[in-house]
Structure formats: structure tokens, C-alpha cells
Design a protein that fits this description.
heterodimer, A: 177 residues, alpha+beta, Alpha-Beta Plaits, 3-stranded antiparallel β-sheet, two-stranded antiparallel ribbon, elongated, B: 347 residues, mainly alpha, 11 helices, 67% helix
Chain lengths: 177, 347
């Protein structure tokens, strides 16, 4: 019969030789192989103590961005929520009052901004949809939680530290410290 | 009042020795489980238990605690007494063998010679054999009392395996006994120390047969098809839970420890340290004890190494190897040994 690929090998049907039949030598060979593995360096990463670094294009938990002066960039336009295929994002808009110019960049801002991390599929479409560079996917993932409501991230969890008043925390969050 | 003239110190000395040896056997068995998991992990490129205490050394305690906390189940249709007796017998026979093993030479304490052997019986090997073959009852009763056909079949498998490998083991040992001329384990060790080389030099084939049979007697892979935890429903202790299961598993490790000690004693000089002579008897005894333990640990490691290398035999392969392979080989070994000894004594 013609073989379909050139990789096929005929099956050996030779009867076992005496050396093969008494097993001892073969078992010894097997033990040499396992012995080599016994001494090998293990590839295990001890998770909570050691962490694997993600690639720079890793799509992790979202962050809400601020501008250089520490003002929130989000204007609650809702494009991210529309773009989200998992419908994980909800928000409520509010109008900036006089005297809040140092907090919000434009007249409209998100009073409530929530992402449900159980729904989020980390596709990054929100990041692409955002016209204001306000939402980015970071290089970390959402840690485990005991309750479902713990996975609904609000502005407290999402907003990055203020570069003016919390410069240290920001540098730390960026992994520069 | 001659009847009551008991040597109380002698009694105390033996009692202390028994307590020490039993706790050492249990401790070694406990840490064998830890070592087994470590060896398995390393062979499979893993790290193994390392969370409970440094290097995972508290893992056996955690495992024991877990087994104690599990629910104790007696199957409704089981024979309650026999069901309880099974693990007890398994443990009992595992522990009893240690009585005749010479752990080290004599200690000198306050003018007394304290032999570090519970009983130097002149039929030591025979005693070991008697006790080991009783180990079948632990397997058989456990499988029978569960009133479960899979358990029973596994028990029958296990029993027939142990019985068939005992034959080859005995034949391999007879060849050794032909050389030593004594059944006492103490005498055998002294003889090896005296003749300057270990019995393995004289009986390499006998040792190989003995080693293979010891694997089978301890139900270790590649002969663990009475247990076959991965596919045959966990064998004869399928219905067991909690510490009763723990006893069965523990007895396996105690058995492994004892058979390693016996192998070290019979073929590798026991507590004898080659090329080194220590004058102080107490220190010599201690060093010998440690040396015996080193040999034992090496054997236990080889047992584990084999377990994580070799797949299980099929039942017909097992019987083929036992009856058509090892027994004729042991007989030939016996014959050759006998002829050599005969020629030796004639000249």
C-alpha cells in the first residue's frame, strides 16, 4: 500500500531478544532516564512568591487614565460601553461644577464608572473605542475574590493615582519603583 | 520465689528498645511518604510538597491529620469485625518483622552488654518469612470483608502474587543460608563483618531475585496490581476510608522499610562498616546504626525510583515472571551455590 506521507515507519514485529525479555536491562535504561530528570532544574514558578512577567501587549485589568495635571480624562461618552461585546461596562455621567476644574478635564465626567470583571473578556475594544485616551488595559489581572460583588470594579479600583499628589504610588503602579 | 526472679533491667531494656524501634519504623514510614512524593515530583520535573513547613516536612503530619478527620465508613453489607481486622493485621505483620533485625552491635551501658536487637532468634529468617506470609491475610481479609467483588478480586490477585513471589524469595534465600549456615540475622551480619566482604559478592543473582520478590511482597510498582490505584478501583482497600485506609497505606511503607532493612542486613552487611574499625563499642554501635540506616534509605529510594519509572505488569506477565522466570532462576542459583560449596568443602 502506498503511504500518504513519507513519515510513516513500518512496525517492527521482531520477537523480543533474550535481553529484552528479561527486562532488567531495559528497566535499568528507563531508570537512567528518570534519574536524569531527577536531577534536572525544575521549570516550576512558585506562584504567589514568584510571578511570571507578562508581555508588553498583555491585556489585563483596565485603568482609568488621568492627564499630566491629574485630571480625569473620562467624559462618560459611553463609547466604551457600546463597544464592549460582553456588556461589562456601565457608567453614569455628571456635569462638572465650577471649582472642580482641577478634578475633571472636561465639562462632563463619569460620576460612576463600573466594569464587571466577571463579564469582561479583556478584548481591549474599550481601549480602542475611547476618543479621550481615558481607558487602557494594564499588565495585571484581576485578583481572586470571595464574592461576586468584589469583582465589580468602580472608580476607586480603576483610576490611576494622581501624578501630582500621589507621584510615588503612580510610579509604583507603573512598576518604576 | 525463684519464679519471680525476673531480670527487671533486661525487661526494661527490651521494652525501651521495642518502643524506640516501633517509633522509628513509624517515623521512617511517615517520612517515606514525604520522600516518595518528593522523588515522584523530581522525576516528573516537579517540585513536590513544599508548603507545609520547610521543604514540606510537615506534609506527612497534615496527611495524617486529614486521614483522621475523614469519615469512618463501614459498608452496610460488610463483615464489621473482619473489616476492622484487615488493616490491623496489615499493620501488625508489617511491624512484627522488625523484632529480629539486628540494628547495631552491642552497647556498653553501666557494665551491661545491651544488644540492639529485640530478639536474636536462631531462626530469624524463618520468623521473617512466617510473618511476611501472614501479610497476605491483611490483604485477603480486607478484600473479603468489604463484600465488594472488585475488592475481592483485587485481594485474590494480591494474595496469589504474594504467595507466588514468596517461593522464589525463599529459594533465593536458601542459597544464601547454604553459605552462612545460620538462620540468625545477627550471626549473618557478624559473619559478613568477619569475612570482610558482603554477601552480595557471593550471591548477586540471589540478591536480584530477592530484590524483585521484595518489590512484589511490598505491593510496589511494577507489582502493585493488587492495589492499582490508577485504574483498578484502588484494589482491595476500595471500601476503606479514614485511618483504616491510612493503616493499609502506612503498612505498605512500613513493609518497604523493613524489607529494605532485611536486604541491607542479608546482602549488604547490615550495620557493618567496611574498612573502618571503631574501638569504642558505644560509638561503633551508633555509627553502625547510622550506616544501616543509610543503606536502608538508599534501598527505599531505589524502590521509589523503580516505582516512578516502570509501568505495572499485566497479571499474566506477573505470573510468567514469577513462575517461569524467577523460580527456575532461583533454583539454578541454589544448585550452583550448592555445588560450589560442596567443591569448596571437599578441597
Amino acid at each position: 500500500m502506498q503511504s500518504l506521507t513519507n513519515r510513516s515507519k513500518p512496525v517492527e514485529r521482531k520477537p523480543m531478544t533474550w535481553v529484552e525479555r528479561i527486562y532488567i536491562w531495559n528497566i535499568f535504561k528507563g531508570m537512567l532516564i528518570t534519574g536524569k530528570h531527577f536531577l534536572k532544574k525544575k521549570p516550576t514558578i512558585q506562584y504567589p512568591e514568584e510571578k511570571r512577567t507578562f508581555s508588553p501587549v498583555f491585556r489585563g485589568v483596565q485603568v482609568l487614565n488621568r492627564d499630566e495635571e491629574g485630571r480625569e480624562r473620562c467624559t462618560a461618552c459611553g463609547l466604551c460601553a457600546v463597544a464592549c461585546p460582553a456588556e461589562a461596562i456601565t457608567m453614569e455621567a455628571a456635569e462638572r461644577k465650577p471649582g472642580e476644574e482641577n478634578l475633571y478635564r472636561e465639562e462632563k465626567y463619569a460620576a460612576r464608572y463600573e466594569i464587571n470583571m466577571l463579564r469582561c473578556i479583556f478584548c481591549g475594544l474599550c481601549e480602542e473605542a475611547c476618543p479621550k485616551d481615558a481607558i487602557y488595559l494594564s499588565e495585571t489581572f484581576a485578583p481572586a475574590n470571595y464574592q461576586r460583588k468584589g469583582f465589580i470594579y468602580g472608580k476607586n479600583e480603576l483610576l490611576i493615582p494622581d501624578p501630582k499628589t500621589q507621584a510615588q504610588e503612580l510610579a509604583k503602579a507603573r512598576g518604576q519603583l | 520465689m525463684h519464679l519471680l526472679a525476673i531480670d527487671w533491667i533486661f525487661l526494661l531494656e527490651k521494652l525501651i528498645l521495642i518502643v524506640i524501634i516501633i517509633s522509628i519504623s513509624l517515623g521512617v514510614a511517615m517520612y517515606s511518604t514525604w520522600w516518595e512524593r518528593k522523588v515522584a515530583a523530581w522525576i516528573q520535573d516537579r517540585i513536590g510538597p513544599n508548603r507545609a513547613g520547610p521543604l514540606g516536612l510537615l506534609q506527612p503530619l497534615a496527611d495524617g491529620l486529614k486521614l483522621f478527620m475523614k469519615e469512618e465508613i463501614f459498608p452496610a453489607s460488610s463483615n464489621k469485625i473482619l473489616f476492622l481486622l484487615g488493616p490491623c493485621l496489615a499493620m501488625l505483620t508489617a511491624m512484627m518483622t522488625s523484632a529480629v533485625v539486628p540494628w547495631a552491635s552491642h552497647l556498653h551501658i553501666a557494665g551491661r552488654d545491651v544488644p540492639l536487637q529485640i530478639a536474636d532468634v536462631n531462626i530469624g529468617i524463618l520468623y521473617v518469612f512466617g510473618v511476611v506470609s501472614m501479610g497476605v491475610y491483611g490483604v485477603m481479609i480486607g478484600g473479603w470483608a468489604s463484600n465488594n467483588k472488585f475488592s475481592l478480586m483485587a485481594a485474590v490477585r494480591g494474595a496469589s502474587q504474594i504467595i507466588s513471589y514468596e517461593l522464589a524469595m525463599g529459594l533465593a534465600l536458601i542459597a544464601l543460608v547454604l553459605h552462612t549456615g545460620s538462620l540468625s540475622l545477627g550471626v549473618i551480619v557478624e559473619q559478613q563483618a568477619h569475612q570482610g566482604y558482603w554477601n552480595i559478592v557471593l550471591q548477586p543473582l540471589g540478591f536480584l531475585i530477592f530484590f524483585v520478590c521484595a518489590l512484589a511482597e511490598c505491593n510496589r510498582t511494577p507489582f502493585d496490581l493488587s492495589e492499582a490505584e490508577s485504574e483498578l478501583n484502588f484494589g482491595y482497600h476500595q471500601e476503606y476510608s479514614s485511618m483504616k485506609l491510612g493503616f493499609y497505606l502506612f503498612a505498605e511503607y512500613v513493609n518497604m522499610f523493613i524489607s529494605s532493612v532485611i536486604m541491607a542486613t542479608l546482602y549488604f552487611g547490615g550495620y557493618h562498616i567496611p574498612f573502618i574499625h571503631i574501638a569504642d563499642p558505644n560509638f561503633a554501635a551508633l555509627a553502625g546504626f547510622i550506616f544501616l540506616f543509610a543503606k536502608t534509605a538508599a534501598f527505599i529510594t531505589v524502590f521509589m525510583w523503580i516505582r516512578w519509572t516502570v509501568p505495572r505488569f499485566r497479571y499474566d506477565q506477573l505470573m510468567n515472571l514469577g513462575w517461569k522466570g524467577l523460580i527456575p532462576l532461583a533454583l539454578i542459583n541454589l544448585l550452583i551455590t550448592a555445588v560450589v560449596i560442596l567443591l569448596h568443602t571437599q578441597h
